[in-house]
Amino acid sequence: MKRPTIADVARRAGVSKGAVSYALNGQPGVSEATRQRILAIAAEIGFSPSSAARALSGATADAVGLALCRPARILGIEPFFMELISGVEAELSARSYALTLQVVADQEAEIAVYRRWWAERRVDGVLVCDLRTNDIRVPALEELQLPAVVIGGPGHTGTLAHVWADDAAALAEAVEYLVALGHRRIARVGGLPSLLHTEIRTDAFAEVCGRLGLTDAATVWSDYTGEEGARATRRLLSSARRPTAVIYDNDVMAIAGLSVAQEMGLGVPADLSIVAWDDSPLCQLVHPPLTALGRDIPAYGAHAARQLLAVIAGESVGGLQDETAHLTPRGSTAPPRVR
Amino acid sequence: MKRPTIADVARRAGVSKGAVSYALNGQPGVSEATRQRILAIAAEIGFSPSSAARALSGATADAVGLALCRPARILGIEPFFMELISGVEAELSARSYALTLQVVADQEAEIAVYRRWWAERRVDGVLVCDLRTNDIRVPALEELQLPAVVIGGPGHTGTLAHVWADDAAALAEAVEYLVALGHRRIARVGGLPSLLHTEIRTDAFAEVCGRLGLTDAATVWSDYTGEEGARATRRLLSSARRPTAVIYDNDVMAIAGLSVAQEMGLGVPADLSIVAWDDSPLCQLVHPPLTALGRDIPAYGAHAARQLLAVIAGESVGGLQDETAHLTPRGSTAPPRVR
DNA sequence: CTGAAAGCGCTTACAG
DNA sequence: CTGAAAGCGCTTACAG
C-alpha cells in the first residue's frame, strides 16, 4: 500500500502543496471552503503528514522523551512508573504527541541519551524522574537547552520547569495520625537515600518526630524492593525496643513488611501498625488492607506532560505544586496494644 | 547550542557530506583511514544524524511502536507489561532503536494509531499485545503491510510473525502437581475471556482435568484486577463443595485470593492451596509466598523485539516458541487437609 | 487568497 | 575511492 503524500492531496484538491499545508495546520492563506474540501480529501485518503518531513522542515518532532533509570525488576513491580506513564501518555496523545521511552543504566547514560535525542532532533523535550540533590542531569539539560520538566522537587531543579508534591506535609500527617492513635515508637523504612524525595521525607520525619517529642524515631534505608523492605523490617522488629508502627516509603516494601510481621507472629495492627506510601491497588490486595498515603499519580504525570508542552511552546514555566498525598486509613493501623 | 550537522563534520574532515554518510553507516566508498578520521570528528563534536532527515531519505525511522490497550489501573498493577517493556527496550536500545509507546482505549483506536503511525512513517514496525481470537488488528496490519510481531499465540496470528509460549503445557504441569499432592477439587480463576491466551488455558484446563478424572474442575472468569479476583475467590470458597486448590491467571488475583482466604479464616496452604501465573516479585512478598508459574518476561520482550527487527530488515520470520513457564513451589501449596 | 520555490539534513545512485 | 547532485515530503517566506 502506497502511503499518501501531501502531493496526492494537492492533486485531488486541485491546489498547491502549500495550500494543503496551510489548510491542515490551521494557518491563514486559504479560504474556509477550500480548507474544508482539503480536509475532507485528506481524511478520505487517510493522509497524515510524514513526521520526518515535518520535523525536518523546522517544525517540531511531535515527540517527548522519558528515560527511566531503574533496573527492570524494580520498574516492573512498582505501579508508580506505569501509572505515571499512562498519565503522561493520555495528555500527550490528546495533543498528538508521541512518547519515546528509554531505559538507562545510570545518570551518565541518561545524559548521553539526552544528548543523542537532542542531536537527532528526535524529541522536542524530556521528562526527568528520580531527581537527586545536585543532580548532574540538570546542568546538562540546561546546557543543551533541551526543553525539560523535572518530576520532583522542590529545589535542585535549577532553571528547569518542574512539578512537585509536598511530601514533607504528607509525612507529617501520617506521623501525627499514628501519634494520635497512641504510638510513640515509630520507625520509617526509607527508599534510596540518594533520591531527593527520600531526603526530603527523612528531614521531615526527623522534624515532626522532634516536634512531637518522639525520641525513638529512626529511619532505616532500603531500595524499594520487597527483599530489602523485608530485611529492614526484620531488623526493626528484632530490636529490643521494637517500634509499634512503621511507615514505608513505598507500597512494595510495606507489603513485604506486613508479611515479615505475620511470619514473626506479630499481629497487624494489634502489635504493629503499618503505613505505606503510594496507595496503589496493591495496598488493598493484602489482608489487612494497608493504611496508605496516596495521590493521583496518572494526574501527576498528565500535569508534567502539560507543563512540558508549555515549555516546548516557548511559554515561561516555573514550578507547579501538585496535590499533597493524603492518608487513607485502613485495617493496618490501630492503637498499639498495651504491653 | 547549535546542533552539529553532517555538513559540519564534512567541513572539518575536508570531505563531502556523502563521504561522511558512508563512513558513519559502514558503507564502502571511503578508505579505512578516512572513515576513522571522520568517526573521530563526529564523536568529538557530538554529531548524531538527524533522525528526521534519515527517515525522510528513505532510511528507517529507527523507531518501533507499542500500543497498550488496558486501563491505567491494570497497566500499573501488573508487573507483566513493565517487565515486557524493559526487555523490549533493552533489545531496541542496543540497536539504537527508539520505542514509541501509546495507550489506547480499544482495538479500533489501536488500529487508528497503527494507520497514523504508518502514514506518518513514525515507526518501522509494531509489537502487538493481548491477542484475541479472530483479532481485527491482524488483517489491518496485514493490509498496511506494516512490519509487526504478535506477542501471543499460537494461532490467530495470520501471516504475521509472532512469539509465543506453551501455556497449555505449563497449566498441565500445575494441575498435575496439585493432583500429585492429593488435590481433587481444583478451580481456576481465569483472566479476560476475550483474550486468546485465556482461552488456550481454559481449554487446556478442561483437557487435563478430564484426563485426570477431576470432575469438579471449574473455571470462573475475572479481569486480572484484585477486586474481581477477590470476588471470584469468595464465590468459590463459599460453595458447598469448595475447592482445595485454586489456580489464578495472574499474580494480582492470586494475592487477592490469598487475602480472601485469610479473611475467611482458611489456612493457606492447609485449607487452600494457591498457584499463581506470572511469577513476579509480588509472589514472594506475601505470606506464605506463592507457588507460581513463571518465566523470564523481559527475555520474552527482548525476543519479540529481535523478531521485529528481523521483519523490518526484510527477513522472512515466522513463529518463535519461547520458554514454557515452569512451576516454582513455595509455601502456598501443600497436600489438602483431610476433612 | 494562491502558486512557485527554497530549504530542512540526510542517503544514494551516478559520474568521474 | 571520492565528489556533485537529486530527492525524500514537508513548511514557509516570497511574489503575484
What report would you give on this structure?
Two copies of one chain form a homodimer. Chain A is of the alpha/beta class. Chain A has two domains: 6-49, 434 Repressor (Amino-terminal Domain), CATH 1.10.260.40; 62-339, 3-Layer(aba) Sandwich (Rossmann fold). Helix content of chain A is 45%, strand content 15%. Chain A has 13 helices and twelve strands. In chain A, the strands form two sheets. Chain A has a six-stranded parallel sheet, sandwiched between helices. The termini of chain A are far apart. Strand 2 of chain A pairs antiparallel with strand 2 (98-103) of chain B. The structure holds a DNA duplex (16 and 16 nucleotides).
